[in-house]
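so my prof wants the structure for this chain in the tokens format not the other one, which i didnt know existed until like an hour ago. anyway here's the sequence
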Amino acid sequence: MSSDRTLSMRPSSVAPRGNLNDLTPIVHRVVERIGETNDITTLVLEPLDAPSMTFRCGQFNMLSAFGVGEIAISMSSAPGEGTLRHSIRDVGAVSHALCQSRVGDLVGVRGPFGSDWLVESASVEADLDPRDTIVVAGGIGLAPLRGAVEELVRANERGGGRVFVLVGAREPSQIVFRADLDSWRARGAKVSLTVDLATPEWDGRVGLVTTLLADAGFDATNSRAMLCGPEVMMRFTARALVDLGMDPEGILVSLERNMQCGVGWCGHCQLGPFLLCRDGPVVPYAGLVSQLLTQRER
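here's what i got, hopefully its the right format
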């Protein structure tokens, strides 16, 4: 199989979309609201009168703020947690309305949509992957990876491969999921943090997240990677991992291009020959995607 055919021939973890039911939001109630940073809020949702959602780490939902609109937001929970979490940055009208939601408010949820990180649930009896897994996140890019890291840490506790979590943020106050980072570290994951701009109380690393790679301690020849964050970060991180000896086929990136329908109908999320709501958001870096990552974000 040639590398530039990798993405188009990758089996999807979800059925092809196109059913009208996929366009109908299911009403959920906000049961918990967590302020992660000054502009990032996590909403924990429960359906009013429908079964709990079945999803895989890395997939996304279309969230509706009734009367305002809807946007694509990845799940930030692990399937085994029993909750449905979405972590949202307040950057526009819809995200602002969602971030202002209070416990008891109602939101619409369509999904799940898209591809995933190919991480088996730790609650499922399966062969444990012995490879090292390197998770690299920039800012809120840790949100779509949070569930995957939780499953990987659980698997590591059962004898699976080592987990390396490398996180970059603009400044210390923008580091999300601090309690999770502490929990993952305490349970065996190797967690490293860096910021672009240090504050007087910050005594950690300062610099780009790529500076964490060289001395992280993973085996690049027997590993896989999951990257999420600004595309320039993912591009340079993927190239650095390949330079360290990692197989490009083992590097997954999460992309987004103005997703509006979630079912591959409207075409707003097109990137080259792909519709990222259907063929992504998680795609292998190898081949064509490595070239498309140089395309300007719209």
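also thought this was worth mentioning. Confidence is low (pLDDT under 50) at residues 1-17.
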